[in-house]
Design brief:
The protein has about 170 residues and is mostly helical. It folds into two domains: about 60 residues, no CATH class; about 80 residues, Arc Repressor Mutant, subunit A, CATH 1.10.10. About 65% of the residues lie in helices and about 10% in strands. It contains eight helices and three strands; from the N terminus they run ααααβααββαα. It has a three-stranded antiparallel beta sheet with strand order 1-3-2. A hairpin with a 7-residue loop joins β2 and β3. The longest helix is centred in the N-terminal third of the chain and has 29 residues. The protein is elongated, with a radius of gyration of 20 Å. The mean pLDDT is about 95.
Length: about 170
């Protein structure tokens, strides 16, 4: 069995699922793909849960944190809503929803574009900037400094996922 870690295989539901795929006769290539997809999906759940747990005291979800962090990184703390959604790789309606929640919390504001009357900017407020800086320290220390694997493994994971993203036209 190419992808099964025999030590973890008895307790790992994904390894057990792989064995079911193999036993069904679908072949190693298909079993490899199922195992990869299922592993990434589960890793996403694990990482998101860790991030959301760290952000909970700040009243932020990861998507709202990402928007605040993006705005804090910009030169003027503001971007057109469409550009923010593009950079975050989310549909504009998802960005608009996150913006509405952040506006309600006083962390961002919508302002008219100074030269393009058709465009609305989303701008981080002083409270939003203060909150995102505190939340970033917590995420850096609680999650990003130790994602749960060796640094070299994390780098290999990023490389493998970048290959998948590029192959699927993500950039």
């Amino acid at each position: 069995m190419a992808g099964v870690n025999h030590e973890a295989g008895e307790h790992d539901p994904i390894a057990l699922a792989r064995r079911n795929w193999e036993d069904a006769g679908w072949g190693d290539e298909v079993a490899d793909g199922m195992e990869a997809v299922t592993s990434v999906m589960r890793a996403h759940q694990i990482m998101l849960a860790r991030v959301e747990q760290e952000l909970k005291p700040f009243g932020l979800t990861f998507s709202r944190f990402e928007l605040l962090r993006l705005l804090a990184f910009t030169r003027h703390g503001a971007l057109p809503i469409s550009k923010a959604s593009d950079r975050l790789q989310v549909h504009v309606s998802s960005a608009t929803h996150a913006i509405a929640r952040l506006v309600d919390a006083g962390l961002v504001e919508r302002i008219p574009h100074p030269t393009d009357g058709r465009t609305t900017l989303v701008s981080i407020t002083a409270d939003g900037r203060e909150l995102v800086e505190k939340a970033t320290v917590v995420l850096n220390n609680g999650v990003f400094a130790n994602v749960g694997m060796a640094r070299s493994s994390a780098q290999n994971l990023v490389s493998a996922i970048r290959e998948l993203r590029q192959d699927n036209g993500d950039f």
